[in-house]
Amino acid sequence: MKAIILFGHGARDSRWREPFDRLAALWQEQHTHTPIELAFLEMMQPSLEEAVRALSAKGANDVIVVPVFFGQGGHLRNDFPALLEECRDKFPGVQLRSTSAVGDDLAVLQAIIDFGARAL
C-alpha cells in the first residue's frame, strides 16, 4: 500500500502546524485510499520515524516523503537524508522515497504568485 508523509520543520508555537493539519485533512478528503501522516524535524511530534512506524502499522510498504520546505537548506541537505536513511534501516520492509522541497516545484511557486495577485 502506498502512503505519504508531509515533512515540516516544526516550531515551538503549536499554532505553526495548523496549515500542516489542514494540508493533511485536504489530502485525506481528496485521496481517501492513500494514508497520510505528518512528521516534523524538531520541536513537534510526530518525528519522521514515528510517522513511518504509524504508516507501516497500517500496512503501508511504499511511502513517499514530501518535504514542505521552500528551499534545499542545511536541514534538507544534511539532517533529512540522515533521518531518512535511519528510517530505511529501521523499516526494511518499507520503501521510503522523497521528493524535492515543495518550493522547488514551479506549480507551488505559481500558486504563491496567484495568491499575491488575488490580493492586489
TrEMBL record:
<dbReference type="GO" id="GO:0016829">
    <property type="term" value="F:lyase activity"/>
</dbReference>
<dbReference type="Pfam" id="PF01903">
    <property type="entry name" value="CbiX"/>
</dbReference>
<keyword id="KW-0456">Lyase</keyword>
<keyword id="KW-0479">Metal-binding</keyword>
<protein>
    <submittedName>
        <fullName>Cobalamin biosynthesis protein CbiX</fullName>
    </submittedName>
</protein>
<dbReference type="InterPro" id="IPR002762">
    <property type="entry name" value="CbiX-like"/>
</dbReference>
<dbReference type="GO" id="GO:0046872">
    <property type="term" value="F:metal ion binding"/>
</dbReference>
<dbReference type="InterPro" id="IPR050963">
    <property type="entry name" value="Sirohydro_Cobaltochel/CbiX"/>
</dbReference>
